Amino acid sequence: MSRAVSRDQIRVHVFARDSDLRDWLLDELALMSPFGSIEARAVDTLEHAAQPALLLVGLDQMTRADVEQLRELICRHLLVVGIGSPQRLHVPLDLQVVLDTKLTSKQLKRAVRDLAARGA
């Protein structure tokens, strides 16, 4: 059952083909939001990620189709945090923030809060 998103909530979608990364990101987002200020959910395809305030994307295992969909979302001014190496994609992407796959909880928290404030 889906809850309505309040005005103060930040809707975050997580797309990562690496299940360990996806699960870690969702767990971290849940810890960052003990009072429900962040509504986080995993999406299986980037087609389902068109409406969040913020998108977290694992870059390292993306397919060509994923990259094209991501480029379209970026063109629509969706705020995106890329996690991994965008150089491996061989396609320039205008990501707001790129974090290493060995990111810390603190780095993730800072990126999410900074971009959420920018998108508000």
What keywords describe this structure?
5-stranded parallel β-sheet, alpha/beta, Rossmann fold, 120 residues, 5 strands
> What's the level 1 CATH class?
Alpha Beta
Query: Judging from the principal axes of the Cα atoms, what is the shape?
Result: globular
Rg on CA atoms, Å: 13 Å
Q: Report the uncertain regions.
A: 1-7
What's the domain count?
1
> By helix and strand content, what is the structural category?
alpha/beta
CATH topological fold name: Rossmann fold
- The helical percent reads 25-40%
Q: What is the succession of H and E elements?
A: EHEEHEEH
**How many helices in DSSP terms?**
3
Report the end-to-end length measured between terminal Cα atoms.
26 Å
Q: Averaging pLDDT over every residue, what do you get?
A: 85
The major β-sheet equals: 5 strands, parallel
The fourth-level CATH homologous superfamily is Response regulator
Measured by DSSP, the beta-strand proportion falls in 15-25%
Number of strands: 5
Give me the CATH architecture, please.
3-Layer(aba) Sandwich
Strand arrangement across the biggest beta sheet: 2-1-3-4-5
Description:
The chain contains three helices and five strands. With 120 residues, it is α/β, with parallel strands linked by helices. The protein has one domain: Response regulator (Rossmann fold, 3-Layer(aba) Sandwich), CATH 3.40.50. It has a five-stranded parallel sheet, with helices on one face. Strand 1 (10-15), helix 1 (19-32) and strand 2 (38-42) form a beta-alpha-beta unit. It is globular. The model is unreliable at 1-7 (pLDDT under 50).
